[in-house]
Amino acid sequence: MTEETLTIELAGHALQLSAGRAAFDPARRSLFVADAHLGKDAVFRARGIPVPAGATGVALARLERLIAAHRPASIVFLGDLLHAREAHAEELLSALRAWRTRHAALQLVLVEGNHDRHAGALPAGFGIERVSEPYRLGPWALCHHPCLVDGAYALAGHEHPVLRLAAGADRVRLPCFRFGARAGVLPAFGEFTGGFEVGAAARAAGEAVYVVAGDRVLAVPR
Question: According to the lineage, what is the superkingdom (predicted)?
């Protein structure tokens, strides 16, 4: 499956929204990924909660498709790359090492989120730069926690935004991007992350919302 993209303009700069639940800055060839929470399924199983395996593999496969589609020079993770310290299982670390070997030329930056501080560092040699928020890149202030930053448009994660849609008795919650005048929030990249519903108040305040519907990104009428 190839995820489609939708190009929007924020503060005068182009940003491509991908149905792969990431955003791409074509001017700087940088891919932005929020809240991957890799290893969360393994963490839950380690704590005795019976959840199915495979979520991390699905997320890494989606990341491979994004790299193939956009050919980024860098990936900036907007926090919560790993879910917890128990995510350092050999199966996950082996998959990450293999992924890094395939993409050794990629610059990787991790803007530290709340889970990253507890999950600990990735193995030596993984080659990822850990930075505090906000991380400035061109017109963007890249953060984990949503915030406002003077002189930049802030892009963040943390909230795992979803939009509830209804048609008669049917209900569905879809991952979404949300953008205000000075800041926006990306959907959670991970497969097993839940979501915080975007309320009517945010939309009434003039936020632009784009939902991920299968392999498409669709603008939600205001």
Answer: Bacteria
Segments forming the whole domain that contains residue 52: 5-219
Q: Mind listing the pLDDT tens digit for each residue in 142-180?
A: 999 999 999 999 999 999 999 988 666 677 889 999 999
Instruction: Enter the pTM of the model.
Output: 0.90
Q: Which pLDDT does position 204 carry in this prediction? A: 61
CA 178 to chain centre: 13
Tokens of 160: 């795992």
* Separation of CA 175 from chain center: 11
Q: How many domains does the chain have?
A: 1
Question: CA 134, 204, 7, 219 torsion: positive or negative?
Answer: positive
Domain holding 161: CATH number? 3.60.21
CA-CA distance, 215 to 41, in Å (whole number)? 24
CA dist 104 and 210 (Å) reads 32
What average pLDDT is seen over the chain?
86
Mean pLDDT in residue range 117-140: 85
Spatial distance between the Cα atoms of 137 and 114, rounded to a whole number of angstroms: 21
29, 15 Cβ separation under 8 angstroms: no
